Amino acid sequence: MPQPTRSDVHVNRPLTNVSTAYIQSATDFISDKVFPIVPVQKQSDLYFTYNKGDWFRAEATKRAPSTESAGSGFGLSTDSYYCSKWSIHKDIDDDVVANADTPLDMERDATLYVTQQIMLRREIDFLDTYMTTGVWGTDNTSATKWDTASSTPITDVQTAILAMTSQTGYRPNTLVLHPSVYSALRQNTSIINRIVYTQRGIVTTDILAALFDVQNVFVSYAVKNSAAEGAADSLGFATGNKGALLCYVNNAPSIMQPTAGYTFAWSGLYGASAYGSRIKRFRREEINSVRIEAEAAYTQKVVGSDLGYFFSNVVS
């Protein structure tokens, strides 16, 4: 047997230039891209709402000499929001830090972990709030599945655009898709036939936006594990409804402007960003640890249900 052996001349130790961690990219999350963030100073408050119908009645009349003009007006009421607080922490024991090998950086890793947790929670809330039935002005549960040969998704969406515009005066400008729906549309014959002779010839979100006549198409690729800690992983996309949300979004929140939804973020929370989130680091001397804590205070709210049209489970 040759001496020395490989085990004699090398002791395995962790590499310092590579490691693996399944950290989802922020680009796969859309909760802060679809509906605008509205920073608020208080955890709860009111905002004014105007009666839609009053602004669409044509009540101006011809005026005869020496007569008064036609009188009219509009209804005004209020709605409210409440920013719930979500938080999570990771404790880092002093002994663990002292014993950690390079390239481990326990505080960095903990910060990434709690940040990912808050991002995932916000995305799940977004999908649970908006990508479901029973919240929008129209739920379409009878459209031909868009992954079948006879489907006509462009016609379906155009019909929905006309229906929403006729009832609100606003044309929808945003389409939000489940990944399976996006995949089906990329392979849909009626769509491919529209672009087969274009320069690119590949279906992308910007091409779909042009075909559907909207400004933006968003796809959420957020993945969650629904299994308890210690159990076998049960991974899947964060929303179970393979649907498509067509909506009107006011990209610049302001007074007297409608929109399908807003994210109210409590930026007035001490140390919080405009997104209503903050990261804290502090000692827990009683357990000989440093605590990294993430917190976010926000609410995802439908503020104009008639400005949303939901195609539910539109693929098989």
Describe the overall structure.
By secondary structure, the chain is of the alpha+beta class. The chain is built from seven helices and 14 strands. Strands 1, 4, 11, 12 and 13 form a five-stranded mixed beta sheet that branches. A hairpin with a 4-residue loop joins strand 12 (277-284) and strand 13 (289-302). The longest helix has 25 residues, at 106-130. The radius of gyration is 26 Å and the shape is flat. The model has no long low-confidence stretch (mean pLDDT 91).
Q: How is this structure best summarized?
A:
25% of the residues are buried. The protein has helices at 6-9, 94-99, 106-130, 153-168, 179-186, 189-195, 205-212; strands spanning 37-40, 44-50, 76-82, 84-93, 138-140, 174-177, 216-219, 223-225, 235-237, 244-247, 261-266, 277-284, 289-302, 308-311.
Computed CA radius of gyration, to the nearest angstrom:
26 Å
DSSP summary, beta strand count: 14
Approximate helicity band: 10-25%
Look at the helices and sheets and give the structural class: alpha+beta
Separation, N- and C-terminal Cα atoms: 63 Å
Query: What is the N-to-C order of secondary-structure elements (H for helix, E for strand)?
Result: HEEEEHHEHEHHHEEEEEEEE
For the residues shown, what is the average pLDDT? Answer: 91
